[in-house]
Structures are given as C-alpha cells and as structure tokens.
Amino acid sequence: MVTMDRPESRFAPDRIARELDWNLLRTFVVLAESHSVTDAAQRLGLRQPSVSAALKKLEERIGRKLLDRSPGHFQMTDAGRLLYREAVEINGSVLRLSTLMRELTDEVQGHVKIAVASHVVCPIFDAALARIHRAHPRASFSIEVHSSADAIAEVSAKRASFAVCLVRDHNPRLLYRRLYREFFGLFCGPAHPLFAREDLSMADLAGHSSVSFETDRLQDVLRPVTVMRAQAELGQKITGVSSHLEEVRRMIVAGLGIGPLPLHVAARDVADGQLWQVPPFEGLPAIDVHLVWNPQTVRNRAEELLLQDLLTAIETTPMDERTYR
Fold this sequence. Notes:
By secondary structure, this protein is an alpha/beta fold. 40% of the residues lie in helices and 20% in strands.
C-alpha cells in the first residue's frame, strides 16, 4: 500500500534542512539579484538550462513558486522574497567561513570589509583604523564606496563587516550608533555667475539651476537639504544627480548648478578657490552619519577589534567633538 504524505509534511523543518542543497540557494540569490535567467547564468558562469533546472529543483524542495517568469516579466513571488531575505544572510555566513578558519592563529590577521558612503571625512574613523593597523599589522582592510542604502544592504547580507553611512529607516535586525554630525551648505563653482560674490542674499539664488544627491528628496535621508534648496528658491529642475559626493562636487565645480556639500568636506576646495559658498549661512541642515553593524554576523578578531575601538571612541568622545561645522 502506498502512503501519501500529509500536505504540511512538505514544509517540515527537518525535511527541508535534510534535503536542501546550499548550491541551490546560492543560485537563487544570484537569480533574485539579476534581471533574467540569462543574466544570472552569465554571472554564475553556467548555461541557462542549468540555472532553470536549479530553480525548478529548489521550488520543488521548498514547495513554493519563487519566481514569476513570462516574456518581459521577471519578479520574485512573496515566497521568493522571503527566501531571498534569509538566503542572503546564509550566503554571507558561508562566505565568511574560510576567513574564520584562516584566523585560527595567535596573531590577528583577519580581513575587515567596510562599506562606506561616498566621501566619509571623520578623524575618529581614521584614528581607529590607524590604531588597529599599528597594533595588528597582519590584519587587512578593504573599503568599498556605496550609496548609503546599498552600504546597509551589504551589512544586512553579512557581506560587509560594518558600514559608515546615512540612515533613513532603522532595520530592527541591525544596530546603529551615531558616529558624527555634519552640516550642509550650498556651493557654486568658478564658472557660475554667483562665484566670488560676497554681497549675495537668498533672493540671488532664485531660479538658478541646481545639482544634488539622489537621496535629496522630501521622503529620503537628505530631506533637510531638500528643504534648504526649496527655501533658496532654486529652479525646480535638478540639472544633475549622483549618489557619490565626489561626482556632485564635480558637477558643481564644472558649473552645472548650485549644489549641497558638507561644510567640512568642502572647506579645502573653498580655500583653493574651487568652490564658493552661497546663502543661507545660518540654520544650515545637520545630517548624522552612523556606524551600522549586524549583530548576527560572526566577526573575525580584526573586525571585532575595529568595531569595539569605534564604539569606545563614540562613547568617550563628546558629541560636540564629533560635530563638524
């Protein structure tokens, strides 16, 4: 007599844990981050039928459809989004295993991967890096520049040790500490008609074109900067945008428009005659930059030492000394 499994037996945790192949999860993570099966196959170095077969096998093991695919349509289902959220964390943990195994020596020689927002200028951060390097010269570091949202995604997926970036919404799975505060002003470049004019008022800015950051929107992390631009009555059309501060600076210097920059970052360019600050000069918007880390990440010793050094510096340095005007 043939016995039939109860429907819920397909989703029994022990069955899934026993039968699930990690390579299928890895393939799905790449699929979820791609635009098509063909795109995923190229990224994985596999043939398209192999990727499609892996997806089908994973859907059979999970018992749920994970991707909706049709001509011109490639989107995760609700089950796919749930699986992806968990799989990226598993992926991060697996990728870290070899690093952790290599570190089983008396000497600290782990690798620290830091995701930072564009052009983080913070003496506390620099000093922490210097201290860890002096004490543990075999430790290695990589610093990758991302948009703030992508930097947080790297930490959430355990692909980065921690992030230094702007924060809009707090993910309950992550931990946050304010590292420093910076103030934004408006600047123009040498080719701009307002450059080097010392008699400017807010009214002089009205109608001029502007450049800014992609997050310079009322509903995003640079909302105070958006409000400042609106108060200056700059033209409605933004001539250029970027998620990288260096590129916003480039467009300002090139004369594409008036744009916002942190005062302490722009100070050297002002002194060198590459930038000119325009009104307003009072009540400038303050933006906080955070240290963000994932408490579920198993950190190597170098990562743990640098994170604890930064947290100690934050706790022992008054906020006024971590505020750059």
